[in-house]
Amino acid sequence: KSDIGKKVDSYRFKYILSDLSKKGTNSSNSSKNTAEKTKWEEYEEALRDLKSNWLSKMDNSEDAERLYADVVNLFPEHLASHTSLLQALETESKRPYPGGEITDTILETAKRIIAVTGEVCKAVDQNALLAHLGIKTDHRVDANIINSKMEKQKNAIVDALAKKGSAMCRLYLNHVSGNGDQVITLEAIDEIWLNLLQYVEPNDIKQAGYFGMWHAVAYEHYGRAIKLAIKMFEEKATRELEESILWMCAKLGWHHCAQHFARSTLIRFPPAYRLF
Questions:
Q1: Where is the composition biased (Low complexity) (predicted)?
Q2: Tens-digit pLDDT profile for the chain (276 aa)?
Q3: Strand extents, DSSP E, the chain
């Protein structure tokens, strides 16, 4: 009836909306896989994961080795069992630093770490892992599952290479000092170092800093070692790490610097707190 309505033609449209196609999700695929598993298989996987988690918490090497042998015997292809034993053998709070006393226990632990990391390197196909990391976009249906699996393998191989390299450096320095009989060459250490750098940056303190510090000390590059140690000290200050930095300063002839910080070590790390 309005003037605007008279000037405009009107047409009727009929819309037919079809149902949206449901795209298969990875969660549905994973639920199907879990649905196919029996209760006994689920129990075995839960028991395996429980043992692997407790393996990394063991503070007794004999108990850790016994539990490790049990898990590997039942699940020889389970990668987490090897990484859990590595965490038990070399905890962050008890790992040795350059300049400290290299005891027989530390040397035996280093040899054991090299053996276990060899199992990790065998279990991970590094060529397939590097090929996957080079993919810019993965359009496969189960891309999320594959990415999760490859990320676990990457973390395992990075941790294994870092621990293996630092253990080899300790054995090398012990051999150079004339105390060890196991020959470790700098070429072998470099091979592990270059392999690690395929996955992480050399300035990645969290994943490559500890090995990088030992690698620098093995080459007597104490300035580079101090640089990495100071960055680690900024992340987490410990007395053992500071004593290692002072040892490196003394190696460079910076005795004034070592003495200056040594006088205030007890202030930063008091053995006990006095009451007010």
A1: 23-33
A2: 566 556 666 777 888 887 766 555 555 455 455 458 889 989 999 999 999 999 988 888 889 999 999 999 989 889 999 999 999 999 888 899 999 888 999 999 999 999 999 999 999 999 999 999 888 888 888 888 889 999 999 999 999 999 999 999 999 999 888 777 778 899 999 999 999 999 999 989 999 999 999 999 999 999 999 999 999 999 999 999 999 999 999 999 999 989 988 888 888 888 777 666
A3: none
In sequence order, which residues have a C-beta less than 8 Å from that of residue 10 and are 6 or more positions away?
Answer: none
CA 198, CA 217: separation in Å to the nearest integer?
22
- Please give the sequence-ordered ranges of beta strands (E in DSSP) within 168-247, or none if there are none: none
- Residue 59 tokens, joined: 């503070």
**Dist. CA 266–CA 276, nearest whole Å:** 18
Residues 79, 83: Cα–Cα separation, whole Å: 7
CA distance 160 to 86: 8
Query: Within 13 Å of residue 244, how many CA atoms lie on the same side as its CB?
Result: 26
